[in-house]
Write a structure and sequence with these properties.
The protein has helices at 9-22, 73-81, 96-103, 108-116, 119-137, 152-161, 223-227, 253-272; strands spanning 30-36, 42-48, 57-62, 84-89, 144-150, 177-181, 202-209, 233-242, 284-288. Residues 1-28 have low confidence and may be disordered. With 289 residues, it is of the alpha/beta class. 33% of the residues lie in helices and 21% in strands. The protein has one domain: Alpha/Beta hydrolase fold, catalytic domain (Rossmann fold). It has eight helices and nine strands.
């Protein structure tokens, strides 16, 4: 890891980006809302309005299995502070109650494995995204769109972006850029080489304590990056970060800050069309292709 770079101009710029992410205004406060999907089922979302009144686009956040629209506030506020109308989706068919049903009688590990490999759960997530996209587009003049997902949400991101999978699902690739937190390698969901067709900008983040569900090393989460074609693809590894550090549970503000700094730098690089990496930040290894 690089030594302290506080006097480096590029580090200063990255720090400024982080401050912009953390500068939460009254405008981006959480607002619970219920949307209707195309099948008329309700979808609970938390809405974070863009700061400054200028909406440059929208961002959707897809939680992990058992997550809810009340989580990931640090990510939602960060995106809102950069001018994105941000929605955290509740995913009724893979949220808390769905996870409880899957773990009943089988235990947490087996129940999670069942849920994250259930095709209908992802089809439901695709319907959730379609409803959220339609709602956000009607309320934001900006055309940019970002999909962010953690854990099962990261699998959702990869499928939507076009990754091949073992569940017979095909995403619509309807977003301009993607962010996958704790992405999966080849295994229960994705076959070898699943990500070779992904073309759009994509940021992946993991940590050195972010082990897979079956106990495999965090390094399996870097497999997608190595398989993708070059072109604004970033992989960040945070020293000491665990799976739940990305979930917005406030286990470590330092891990959340590093996540936001990296996300901010990625969005800034993509906006300028060069996607060059910033100088290294302490505790973070960052690679691009």
């Amino acid at each position: 890891m690089a030594p302290d770079s506080a006097m480096n101009p590029r580090f200063a710029k990255a720090a400024l980006i982080a401050l912009q992410f953390l500068a939460v205004t009254v405008a981006d406060a959480q607002e619970p809302t219920t949307l209707l999907r195309s099948d008329q089922r309700p979808l609970a979302v938390s809405v974070y309005a863009p700061g400054g009144g200028n909406c440059q686009g929208f961002a959707l956040i897809s939680p992990g299995a058992g997550g809810s629209e009340r989580g990931y506030a640090y990510l939602a506020r960060g995106m809102a502070s950069r001018g994105y109308l941000t929605l955290v989706m509740g995913h009724p068919d893979s949220g808390r109650s769905a996870l409880r049903e899957h773990v009943r009688g089988t235990g947490l590990r087996d129940g999670l494995a069942d849920l994250i490999t259930e095709p209908e759960a992802y089809r439901s997530r695709f319907m959730d995204m379609a409803a959220a996209r339609q709602w956000a587009r009607a309320r934001c003049a900006g055309t940019d769109s970002i999909l962010i997902g953690h854990s099962m949400g990261a699998a959702t991101v990869m499928m939507e972006a076009g990754a091949r999978n073992k569940l017979g699902l095909q995403g619509s690739d309807a977003f301009n850029a993607y962010v996958a937190l704790s992405p999966q390698g080849a295994g229960l969901i994705f076959p070898e080489g699943a990500w070779s067709g992904l073309r759009k900008p994509l940021l992946m983040l993991t940590g050195t304590r972010d082990t897979e569900l079956g106990g495999a090393s965090w390094e399996t989460r870097t497999e997608a990056f190595r398989n993708m074609p070059a072109g604004c693809k970033w992989l960040g590894v945070i020293e000491g970060a665990s799976h739940m550090n990305f979930a917005g549970t406030r286990l470590s503000s330092r891990m959340e800050d590093l996540t936001l700094q990296t996300l901010g730098a990625f969005l800034e690089g993509r906006r300028h069309g060069d996607c060059r990496l910033p100088d290294k930040l302490q505790g973070l290894e960052l690679r691009a292709r």
